[in-house]
Write a structure and sequence with these properties.
Elements (H helix, E strand, L loop, with lengths): L6 E3 L2 E10 L5 E8 L8 H6 L16 E3 L7 H10 L2 E3 L4 H9 L12 H4 L3 H10 L3 H5 L5 H20 L3
Length: 167
């Protein structure tokens, strides 16, 4: 995000955090965009930044499954996940289902998703809440996107350290 300007809204300058989190509410990747940017176009850039290193070998970049809300339900995102062999756990929007049905047999099969895995989607919201426990992230004191993103990475690293530290 070098040199990126922050977006404008009625409240002033804003920014939006797009992130991926694991099942233990730990952040895996961040993308910072202007506040008026849409969510769906940031799906692929966030997943491209996911790299988790295990005890041995190369960093893992492909999750087993991705659970997301309906805002990320687009053909482009689904195609991207299918090509990478990732299980898609994203419900279909009502208007997308209506358009598919209107096209008849050419519309394709209905989208299915694992309801049990979809219930775990709230881990991302819980991760955002943990990030916002840090006052600098919650109130956006930083003036530049670079320093704000650095604060996000620092806070994310602290969350990871807390999760692996012995109690």
């Amino acid at each position: 995000m070098k040199g990126a300007e922050l977006g404008r809204s009625r409240g002033g300058l804003t920014s939006k955090i797009h992130l991926a989190a694991d099942r233990r509410c730990r952040p895996l990747a961040f993308v910072l965009t202007p506040g008026q940017a849409g969510d769906s176009p940031q799906f692929v850039p966030v997943l491209e930044r996911v790299k988790v290193r295990g005890p041995v070998g190369r960093p893992r970049t492909r999750p087993d499954a991705v659970a997301a809300d309906k805002a990320y339900s687009s053909r482009r995102n689904r195609r991207y996940l299918r090509r990478r062999g990732v299980k898609v756990v994203i419900p279909e929007k009502a208007d997308q289902a209506a358009n598919r049905k209107k096209r008849g047999a050419a519309g394709g099969r209905p989208v299915s998703h694992d309801a049990a895995l979809y219930r775990e989607r709230n881990t991302v919201e819980r991760c955002i809440n943990r990030l916002r426990n840090w006052r600098g992230i919650a109130f956006r004191f930083d003036k530049t996107p670079e320093s704000y993103e650095a604060g996000l990475h620092l806070c994310g690293a602290m969350l990871w350290l807390r999760s692996i530290a012995p109690r």
